[in-house]
Amino acid sequence: VDGVDVSAIVSGSLVKLSSATASNSSELLFDNFVDTSTYAYYHIVAENIIPATTSTNLYMTFRQGGASGSDLNGTYYLMSWTAFGNSAFSGFDSNASNANFAQIGDQIQNSAGRAFNGITEYFPSDGTNNGSYTMSNFVHHTSLGAIRDRHRGQYLDSTTAATGARIYMSSGNITSGSIHIFGVKK
Q1: Cα angle for residues 22, 45, 93 (degrees, 5° grid)
Q2: pLDDT tens digits, one per residue of 133-159
Q3: What is the Cα–Cα distance from 29 to 49, expressed in whole angstroms?
Q4: Contact call for residues 17 and 38 (beta carbons, < 8 A)
Q5: Alpha carbon of 20 to those of 70, 107, 136, 181: distances in Å?
Q6: CB burial class (10 A; 0-12, 13-18, 19+) of residue 99?
Q7: DSSP string, 5-36
């Protein structure tokens, strides 16, 4: 379709596994959706996320243990590339890490017209071959009036099998918006 490869959608290899809509929620919890024998990775869509607290960040913590899971804690290493729609800053962030979470979005505003939208590709550890990691892409309007485009990669160096994800704000609740999780079939 107009130069876009839709073969994964047409062939049925992109399967919607879960969805949740926030209503002044402290978190959106998705336990037990990971099936590494069926899916190669997971496509997570953040749609129109509005935080209760302005200029706050959207976090994701990997989960373990299935239906009654718990957070996978440790050092989430990250790097990112950022470009602004003005001359404020463009470039690379390196040698960074967060304790116990991956940062999916940042400086998200809670005013009209400033909802956060983005995608995260999630590659959970299968318990043997690798750690868990994400690649996130988003474009949004910052508090300084600039348009930001950011690509961020993050990695948790643990071979503990990841079975889910927890999405939440760095401060305050998620006022509104949805998270949709799709599995990409092998």
Answers
A1: 105
A2: 999 999 877 766 778 888 999 999 999
A3: 15
A4: no
A5: 19, 22, 19, 9
A6: exposed
A7: --HHHHTT-EEEEEEEEEEEES-EEE-S---T
pTM of the model: 0.89
| Structure tokens given for 150 | 């950011």
Query: Both tokens of residue 43?
Result: 């496509």
Two tokens at 46? 């953040």
Closest CA to 162 of 58, 32, 40: 32
Structure confidence by residue, pLDDT tens digits, 38-68: 999 999 999 999 999 998 999 999 999 988 8
Residue with the bigger pLDDT between 142 and 29: it is 29
φ, ψ dihedrals at 55, nearest 5°:
60, 45
Question: Residue 85 in 3-state DSSP?
Answer: coil
**List of residues 6+ apart from 9 with CB closer than 8 A:** none
> How many Å apart are CA 132 and CA 116, to the nearest integer?
24
Backbone angles phi, psi at 163, to 5 degrees: -120, -5
* CA 155 remoteness from chain centre: 12
